[in-house]
Design a protein that fits this description.
Layout: E1 7-17, H1 22-31, E2 35-46, E3 56-58, H2 63-73, E4 77-82, H3 88-100, E5 102-110, E6 115-116, E7 119-120, H4 126-136, E8 141-142, H5 146-152, H6 163-176, E9 180-183, E10 192-199, E11 202-209, H7 218-231, H8 236-255, H9 270-278
Parallel strand pairs: 1-2, 1-4, 4-5, 5-8, 8-9
Antiparallel strand pairs: 2-3, 6-7, 9-10, 10-11
Bound molecules: 3-hydroxy-5-(hydroxymethyl)-2-methylisonicotinaldehyde.
3-hydroxy-5-(hydroxymethyl)-2-methylisonicotinaldehyde is lined by residues 13, 15, 20-21, 44, 47-49, 84, 113, 121, 217, 219-220.
């Protein structure tokens, strides 16, 4: 059997407290069985969604020398997965990383982590969105939520939509250059949520339950589990389904924890993700 041990690089911030970005991606990818290398885009004391007075250290200027060192060492990755980035300028450096340390058949996954619920996250602006479009152009798999898909396609945000609206967004995202799109949080019916897998122009939909609570950082959990499952040899559809089921379990578990407002308690249910990967 072909060796399944893959080396993944993930580029996103370290929010020291807050259960998002690298503190989620590193354990999830490791649990999925991949060697997980990290490139922190910035270091924050907490995430920006609900805390105030957080620190922010932008690591943009460290990136070129980190890339140069990796190239000198002949390091290459089976997948490169990007999430929350620290500056508009950094996006060009991330593209250099895509070109400089991609191994043979390297899978590039871009989570354009910049917006939710109709709004950009604190600190992001239109120039960042424009630069993010150029990174999305290089994605083998783009993993946006509805808000991000709207920003990336200059479409006014709406919470009432139908399949035709989603299909138009998918076509526009592919027109940017993204090869395939895993579109999260697509809900067509009351009580249901789901994910669209748009691969090679083929539309497939996995529906799952809609939960009454939502958690910050679920997008990071989702994208990390998707990449981890893909690296385990799952098809994009199966990886999208496994990631969705896992995210649902995380949100359900979090509802049982008192006062856990800032993130999802993903650790206690990691066992379920590992089990799903073995099926
Ligand atoms: O989960 C997305 C995310 C990642 N990193 C930081 C954030 C957010 C969302 O707000 O603030 C720093």
């Amino acid at each position: 059997m072909a060796n399944q041990y893959k080396r993944v690089l993930t580029v996103q911030d370290i929010s020291c407290v807050g259960q998002c970005s690298l503190t989620v991606a590193l354990p999830i990818l490791s649990a999925c069985g991949s060697e997980t290398c990290v490139l922190p885009s910035a270091v924050l004391s907490t995430h920006t969604g609900g805390f105030s007075g957080f620190t922010f250290r932008d690591l943009t200027e460290d990136m070129p020398s980190i890339l140069a060192h990796w190239q000198k060492e002949g390091i290459a990755f089976d997948a490169i997965y990007t999430g929350y980035l620290g500056s508009t300028k950094q996006i060009q450096y991330v593209k250099d990383i895509f070109h400089g340390v991609a191994g043979e058949n390297c899978v590039k996954v871009v989570d354009p982590a910049m917006a939710d619920h109709g709004k950009l996250y604190y600190g992001f602006d239109q120039p960042f969105v424009e630069a993010m479009k150029t990174l999305c152009a290089e994605a083998d798999y783009l993993v946006p939520n509805l808000t991000e898909a709207c920003f990336l396609t200059d479409t006014p945000y709406t919470e009432s939509y139908d399949e035709a609206f989603i299909r138009t967004l998918l076509e526009k995202l592919c027109a940017l250059g993204a090869k395939n799109v895993i579109f999260t949080g697509v809900a067509y019916r009351a009580g249901k949520n789901g994910v669209v897998v748009y691969e090679n122009g083929e539309y497939a939909y996995y529906e799952h339950e809609m939960l009454p609570n939502s958690c910050h950082g679920t997008g990071d959990i989702y994208a990390s589990a998707f990449v981890g499952a893909l690296m385990r040899g799952k098809t994009a559809y199966d990886a999208a389904r496994i990631a969705a089921d896992y995210a649902v379990e995380c949100i359900k578990y979090t509802a049982t924890v008192e006062n856990h407002w800032y993130g999802a308690a993903f650790e206690p249910v990691l066992g379920q993700l590992i089990k799903a990967l073995e099926e």
